[in-house]
Amino acid sequence: MINRQMTPLSDTRRDHSPAVRLGHDAVSAVRLSQELTADIDAWAETHQTTRSDAISQLVTIGLHASRPTAMSETKVQDPLAIEQNAIRLIDQMLDPSLPADERERRIRRLIEGPAEFAGERIDLPKHPG
Predict the structure, then answer these.
(1) Phi-psi sector, 9: left (phi>0), alpha (psi -120 to 50), beta
(2) Domain range for residue 41?
(3) Residues pairing with 21 in the sheet
(4) Alpha-carbon separation of residue 64 from 50, 71, 108 (angstroms)
(5) How far apart are CA 96 and CA 1, in angstroms?
(6) pLDDT at residue number 11
(7) Contact yes or no for 97/46 (Cβ under 8 A)
(8) How many other β-carbons are positioned within 10 Å of the β-carbon of residue 54?
(9) How many folded domains does the chain comprise?
(10) Which stretch of DSSP H or E encloses residue 73?
């Protein structure tokens, strides 16, 4: 006779369908394209982690990114506060191994935008021309 020690289910399902066991993380199988797997592996290597941990971290980042924040619900905001928030968010997305001057250049480029569009920006004063 085999003696199996059962771990209680984390929920009270009567149908005995699969559920997360108490004290254990869920293991989920997902189908990923080769391209997505390669992207995840590259991200994992950059962040010195395993593929499994990378998937978990990326899903967590994605879930938090999709949640509306109190700031996004506000209609009118201070332009300086908007810019500071954009700088903070861009800085979080940049590769942490970049030198500080390159990080600053990339942030400025994204915040200020291409010179060709400077005339279209509503936040800049118009020069008579």
Answers:
(1) beta
(2) 29-68
(3) 9
(4) 21, 14, 25
(5) 56
(6) 47
(7) yes
(8) 20
(9) 2
(10) helix 70-73
Q: Could you read off the pLDDT tens digit of each residue along the chain, which spans 129 residues? A: 454 455 454 444 555 555 555 666 788 888 999 999 999 999 999 999 999 999 999 998 888 886 665 555 555 678 888 888 989 999 999 888 989 999 999 998 888 887 787 777 777 677 665
What b/e readout covers 112-125, taking b as 16+ CB neighbours within 10 angstroms? eeeeeeeeeeeeee
Residue 90: what are its φ and ψ, rounded to 5°?
-65, -40
| Within a domain: 39 | yes
Return the pLDDT at 42: 93
Across the chain, how many H-helices and E-strands are there? Answer: 5, 0
Using CA atoms, how far apart are residues 60 and 43, in angstroms rounded to an integer? Answer: 14
* 19 within a domain of the structure (yes/no): no
93 and 62 both lie in a single domain: no
In this structure, the answer to whether residues 57 and 85 fall within a common structural domain is no
